[in-house]
């Protein structure tokens, strides 16, 4: 029986006793076996030890998130659309913002009328 101590930054994170197997070799690579609860403690200790890359204020986080979403959308399909279609979509969005659009139900009624005839 072995007693294992895991010490990080001079602090005891956990101890456990190994009764049977403490390592495993697969394809000449050695893996250490630990109980799941101890592994979770190790993950938590490692996460707490790491400093965040940058700390944001709420305003900075909102701006950063908005930019990241914008980058994702820009990398998506938008750049493949023809310019006249982009302008038409922009005009439609402006009309909807100004309550100038056709209500959804009215459009659906018209579509159903056309499909039924």
Radius of gyration: 29 Å
Total of helices:
4
Instruction: Determine the strand fraction and express it as a percent band.
Output: 15-25%
Give the averaged pLDDT, no decimals: 76
Helix percentage range: 40-55%
What do you see in this structure?
It is a single chain. This protein has 4 helices and 4 strands. The protein is α+β, with helices and mostly antiparallel strands and 117 residues long. The strands form 2 sheets. Strands 1-2 form a two-stranded antiparallel ribbon. Strands 3-4 form a two-stranded antiparallel ribbon. A hairpin with a 2-residue loop joins strand 1 (2-8) and strand 2. It is elongated and about 75 Å long. It starts with a strand and ends with a helix. 0% of the residues are buried.
